[in-house]
Amino acid sequence: MKNSIFENIDKIKGIGPKIKKKFEEKNIFNKIDLLLNLPIGSIDRRFCPKLDQLEVGKISTIFVKGIRYQFPRIRNLPNKVICEDQFGKIDIVFFNSRESYIKQIIPLNQEVVISGKVNLYKNKYQITNPDYVQLVESNFDIKKIMAKYSNITGVSEKTLQKIYINESSNIEKIDEWHDQRFLEKMSWLNWNESLKRLHNPENINDIDKNSIYFERLAFDEIYSNLIIFNEIKKRLKKITKVPKKINEEIVLKILQSLNFTLTDDQKEVLAVIKKDLSSDKKMLRVLQGDVGSGKTIVSLISAAMIISNNNQVALMVPTEILANQHYNLIKKILHFSKIKVDLLTSKLTMKEQNSLKKKIEDGETNFIIGTHSLFQDKIKFKQLDYIIIDEQHKFGVQQRINLSTKGNDGTDVLLMSATPIPRTLILTKYGDMDISTIKNKPFKNKTLTILKPENKLDEVISFIKKKIEIGDQVYWVCPIIEESEILKVNSVTKRFDYLLKNLNVEINFIHGQLSKEEKDKIMSNFINNKTKILLSTTIIEVGIDNPNANTMVIENSERFGLSQLHQLRGRIGRSGKEAHCILLYSNNISETGKKRIKIMKESNDGFYISEEDLKLRGFGDIIGTKQSGEKDFTIADPLYHQHLFEIAQSEIETNKQFNISRYELLLKIFKKDQILNIIDTG
Ligand code: ADP
Ligand code: MG
C-alpha cells in the first residue's frame, strides 16, 4: 500500500532533523500522524474593525499604515510603531523584538494587516506583540478562523501553523472505506474533506467534538478499534477445544468449608463460567466487580472445578504480596484434595526455581500462582487448561493478546478487573471478550470517609489511638516515595518516625524498594495482627485482604486519581464491620481538588466514582492504559462519543458483507495493522 500519507515527516518542507525530533516526542512520525494531531482550538480573526470601532479584549484584524517608530532604547521599555487608518490611531507594541525586525515587518507608509488582541493602555489603544503582521499585498489571508494546535516544545507557533496550512491543503486523495449510503445517513463528508476542514475551519464550531467533521474522524478511530476486537472474537469462535470435565464434588466440598455462602451474583457468574469451561469454545471472559465484591473465591472455585492431576491452572497476579495471599488461600481451600499447588516467586533460589520449572513442564504440579514471571518464554506448561489473571487492569490490550495466545487452543482465559467501567464503555476496553459483572457485594460496605486538612494531624492521631485500642488495624498510605522527589510530597520515612514517636504501637513500613523477603514478612506480620499499623506506599492498592484492618489514612489524597482512592479504600470495610477512611489533604488544595475528594466522601459506588473520574481525568488514566504505555484513543473521547461506539458496533454486526480487507488503509492509519498481524500468527 503506497500512500504519501505514510511518508516520514522529514519529507515535509520546514521540518528538519531538529523539528522532526520534537514531533516524534509527541508520537508524530509520518504525515498522517501529523494530520491526526487535530487543532485544540481556533482563533477567529474575521473581526476587522476600523480604528474608531475598536473593542478592548477582542481579537482584531486591522488594516493600517505605520507612521512613526518609537524606539526608547531604555531597558524594559518596549518598542512601538504608531499606526493609523482614516479613522484613528493605534500603537503596535513589541517586547523583545529588535528594531531592524520591526522596521522590516512594518515599513512606514505602507499598508499592513495586523492581527492580535486589542488592549487599552494609558487611554490609548494598542496591540501588544501581534500574532500576525503582513504586507497587504502578501497573498496569505489572515482574516479567517485559524486552527490552534497544542504546543510542541521547540517549534514556534508560526512554524507549526505554516506546516499545517501547507500539509492540510494538499492531502493525498485516498479511497473511501465507508460506502456513500452510510456517509449520507450520518451527514458526513468523505475522509479528506473532513480532515481538511478540521485544519481549516470555516466556522468557529467546525472543530468542536460534535461537529460532523470531527465525529467522522472520531468514528473512524473507534471503528478501527472495534474491527480489531471483532476480528479477534471471530477467530476465537473458530477455535474448538475439548470440553472440560466438571468436578461437582470438589465444588461442593469447597462451598461447605467456607464460612459464608456465595451471593446470587457470585453463583450466577460461576454458572456462566462453568458453561464456558464445559463448552467446546475457548473462553475469553472478563469478570468485573468492584473491590470487595468477592471475585477471588469465584475464580478459585472455577479453577477447582476443572483441575485434576492431569492438567494445570495458572493464576497470575500483579504483585508478589498478592501471589502469596492467593497461594495461602488456595492451599486452605484445597487442603482436602490431592491437587498440587505451587507458588513461583523470585524469592525462590535459582535451584528451587529450576526444579519448579521442571515440575511445571512435567505436569507434576497443577495449580501455579505467580506474577508476570509465569509467562516468560522459558516456562513451559505441560497441559495448561486455564489461565486466570487477577486485577488485570494493569495490562493493556497488547499484553492481553499475547496472553491469549499462550497455552493452546484449549486454554480458557478469565480476567478479573476491579475497575468498574460504565456499561457503555465496556466495548472500548473489552470489545473482544465476553463480560460478566458482579454487581452486589457480599455485604454493604460501611466505610465512612472523612476529609481532613493535614494541619489537623493531631486529631487523626488521637482517633487512631482509639481505634487501635478497640482492636483495629490501620493502613497508612503515602504517595509513592520512589517518584516523589519531583512532587515534594511528604517523605514517608519522616512520617514513619513521626508515627513511631506519637503512637506507641508496632508499625511496619512497606514500599517497593524492599526485598521480597522483607515485604512478605511485613505483610504476614500485618495479616497476623502482629503489627497494628502498616505504613505504605500505594503498593497495597491491589487486592490485599486483611478483614481486621478497618481504618485507613491516605495522605496527600488530592494527588491520587479517584479510582485509585477507591481501590485503596476498598482494602477496608471488607468484613461488614464499620470502617473509617481518612483522606488528608494539603492546605493549599485547589477548588477542583476539593471537589474531587468530596466525591469520595459522598459515594462508595465504584461505578459512579469511575464515571466521575473519567470526566475529571480522561479515559487513558482510568483503565490503566497509562501504566502500560498504550493509548487507545487520540481523537475519540470514549465518554463523549459513546453514541459513535454504538453505531460502530451495530454497523459491524449488521453488515453481512463485512470484509476486513476493505478497511486495510483505515487500520493502518490508526496503527491497528500490527495487532492484526499478531492475531494472524498467534
Ligand atoms: P475482590 O472482588 O476485591 O477481589 P475478594 O475476593 O478479595 O474481593 O473478597 C473480599 C472479601 O469478601 C474476602 O475477605 C472474601 O473472603 C469475602 N467474601 C467473598 N465472598 C463472600 C460472600 N459471599 N459472603 C461473605 N464474604 C465473602
Ligand atoms: Mg481481588
What can you see in these coordinates?
- It contains 25 helices and 21 strands.
- Helix content is 38%, strand content 18%.
- The protein has 682 residues and is α/β, with parallel strands linked by helices.
- The structure holds adenosine-5'-diphosphate and magnesium ion.
- The site of adenosine-5'-diphosphate has 18 residues, from helix 10.
Q: Mean pLDDT, as a whole number?
A: 86
Overall form: globular
Largest sheet: 7 strands, parallel
- Contiguous low-pLDDT stretches (5 residues minimum) are 483-489, 619-630
Strand order of the largest sheet: 11-12-10-13-14-9-15
Strand content: 15-25%
CA distance, first residue to last residue: 24 Å
Oligomer: single chain
Q: Could you provide a short overview of the structure?
A:
It contains 25 helices and 21 strands. It has 682 residues and is α/β, with parallel strands linked by helices. The protein starts with 16 loop residues before the first helix and ends with a helix.
What secondary-structure arrangement, pairings included, does this model have?
Blueprint: H1 17-25, H2 31-36, E1 41-44, E2 59-70, E3 79-85, E4 88-94, H3 99-105, E5 111-121, E6 124-128, E7 132-135, E8 145-148, H4 157-169, H5 180-186, H6 191-199, H7 212-238, H8 248-257, H9 264-277, E9 284-289, H10 295-306, E10 312-316, H11 320-333, E11 341-344, H12 350-362, E12 367-370, E13 384-389, H13 397-404, E14 412-417, H14 426-430, E15 434-438, E16 447-453, H15 457-469, E17 473-477, H16 484-487, H17 492-502, E18 507-510, H18 516-527, E19 533-536, E20 549-554, H19 562-569, E21 579-585, H20 591-602, H21 606-617, H22 619-622, H23 642-654, H24 664-669, H25 673-681
Parallel strand pairs: 4-6, 9-14, 9-15, 10-12, 10-13, 11-12, 13-14, 16-21, 17-19, 17-20, 18-19, 20-21
Antiparallel strand pairs: 1-8, 2-3, 2-5, 3-4, 5-6, 5-7
Helix pairs in contact: 6-7, 7-23, 8-10, 9-10
